[in-house]
Design brief:
The complex is a heterotrimer of chains A (87), B (247) and C (115).
Chain A (H helix, E strand, L loop, with lengths): L2 H19 L3 H21 L3 H38 L1
Helix pairs in contact in A: 1-2, 2-3
Chain B lengths: L2 H23 L11 H12 L5 H9 L1 H21 L6 E3 L10 H23 L8 H12 L1 H5 L2 H7 L2 H26 L20 H29 L1 E3 L5
Helix pairs in contact in B: 2-3, 3-4, 3-10, 4-9, 4-10, 5-6, 6-10, 9-10
Chain C lengths: L3 H19 L3 H23 L22 H32 L13
Classes of the chains: A mainly alpha (87), B mainly alpha (247), C mainly alpha (115).
Chain lengths: 87, 247, 115
């Protein structure tokens, strides 16, 4: 177990804790993207370039984008609901 | 069950599972050991079929039926998500407001990087059998490359560049093509998804038989799925409004 | 210390589950589920790793008889990553509709889902 693998594993664990402990889902989108990056580095160190390519596209771009769009949609729907109940 | 009861139950169950897990890891082979029984079988089989990327060989040649199942899950999830996000009876889709301005430098970066990313995505899909890559990765790269137009431009530009119906058709074509190629495999070589196309020299782009074709079909399908998903989410946020709202 | 990789994988699964149990927002629960899934990827790749072996792709620099890491677990992981992104999208679409129908996404307030 080299130092590089151990450091990468520790960074992944810390980033995962940060994602779960961030309470606002809008903030979680950014931490999820950073978590995806740390996973990519770990996968490359573990000699898995295909898996790293997959995780790079999905975990850093697509899923955080969908989370952000969901949060904004919910905020907009709640605002519209508030307007209609005021009428 | 109230919140505290839920947390206590999780503490109990999670504690027991953690203890069992730690005890189990003491019996696993050491991290970094050289005992890998599946690798000793998979690598010679891939080399025999002239496939340089062994992971693609496992995905599209040796265990292609698992990939068939996975991509069916993908199609099913996308159909479900797109159906859930359609405008309902009391909502309507209206033209997106043309909001926001991007900096000139951002727009330049978009113009330069978008064709580069698209070419890179096609390269990753086509070279799936011989370098790291393949259908799954290349499809995601292509889909995110297309959305650079949204990041560095405007939403109406994105809508013009990606009409959703051709991508839905592409997704279905990819999934159907995969199944058809599998059935052709029964007819020619006796096994569903058997590798029946001619094998070429090791390391050339057309050397891997059906692995290349299946990888390209999966790339088409993943591209279509990601575009359909992201367009449903965008439409929900930007252009769908309840009937009678003035925003 | 050779079990550290497995312990980190188990920790990620545990903290993802803890996030789901204690969350107050459905989207937070879905993102914690992603963290738990990442724990399983780390476990799979850790099982397949071999010290001083290279990636399972042969080319002009790696001839087909050099030692490589296990390609079967990598194949399983890479399809799983893409497919679970679409399943996450399905869960997020469900959350959007729940918000529209009930006006709240706090799991403790969603009384209609209580059995």
């Amino acid at each position: 177990m080299t130092a590089l693998v151990a450091i990468a594993l520790t960074v992944v664990a810390v980033a995962g804790t940060a994602v779960v402990l961030a309470d606002a889902p809008g903030r979680q989108a950014v931490t999820l993207s950073v978590f995806g990056m740390t996973l990519v580095v770990l996968f490359v160190i573990l000699q898995a370039p295909d898996v790293a390519l997959s995780e790079l596209g999905v975990g850093t771009a697509v899923v955080p984008l969908m989370v952000m769009l969901t949060v904004r949609t919910m905020r907009k729907d709640r605002r519209q609901r508030g307007h209609r109940e005021d009428e | 069950m109230n919140r505290l009861g839920r947390l206590l139950l999780f503490a109990l169950g999670g504690g027991v599972v953690s203890v069992l897990f730690v005890l189990a890891t003491f019996d696993l082979p050491d991290f970094g050991s050289s005992i890998h029984l599946y690798r000793d079988l998979a690598v010679p089989a891939a080399v025999q079929h002239h496939t340089a990327n062994v992971v693609s060989a496992v995905n599209f040649d040796q265990r292609a039926i698992d990939t068939f199942g996975e991509e069916t899950i993908l199609v099913a999830s996308v159909v479900g998500a797109a159906a859930l996000l359609r405008p309902s009876a009391d909502e309507s889709e209206r033209r997106a407001p043309d909001l926001g301005r991007t900096l000139e430098s951002t727009r330049l970066v978009g113009y330069v990087l978008m064709p580069v990313t698209l070419v890179l995505g096609v390269d990753v899909v086509l070279h799936g059998g011989i370098t790291p890559g393949g259908g799954f990765q290349g499809g995601v790269v292509l889909a995110t490359g297309l959305h650079l137009i949204y990041v560095t431009g405007t939403y109406p530009a994105l809508e013009r560049l990606r009409p959703v119906v051709p991508f839905e058709v592409a997704e279905s074509l990819g999934a159907a093509g995969f199944a058809l190629l599998g059935l052709l495999g029964i007819w020619t070589s006796g096994a569903f998804l058997g590798n029946f196309l001619p094998l070429g020299a090791f390391g050339q782009i057309l050397s891997t038989g059906t692995v290349q074709v299946l990888s390209a079909l999966v790339g088409l399908e993943v591209l279509g799925s990601m575009i359909v998903l992201l367009s449903s989410f965008f439409a929900q946020e930007i252009s769908i409004r309840k009937a009678g709202a003035d925003q | 210390m050779s079990i550290y990789a497995y312990l980190v994988a188990g920790y990620l699964i545990l903290i993802g589950s803890y996030g789901i149990v204690r969350s107050r927002h459905l989207v937070h629960a879905v993102v914690s589920l992603s963290v738990a899934q990442a724990g399983t990827y780390v476990l799979l790749l850790a099982v397949g790793y071999q010290r001083a072996a290279s990636a399972p792709v042969f080319g002009s620099t790696t001839k087909p008889n050099t030692g490589v890491v296990d390609p079967v677990v990598q194949a399983m992981t890479l399809t799983d990553i893409v497919v679970s992104a679409t399943v996450t999208a399905l869960l997020l679409a469900l959350a959007v509709q729940i918000n529209k129908r009930h006006g709240t996404v706090d799991p403790d307030d969603l009384a209609a889902l209580r059995g």
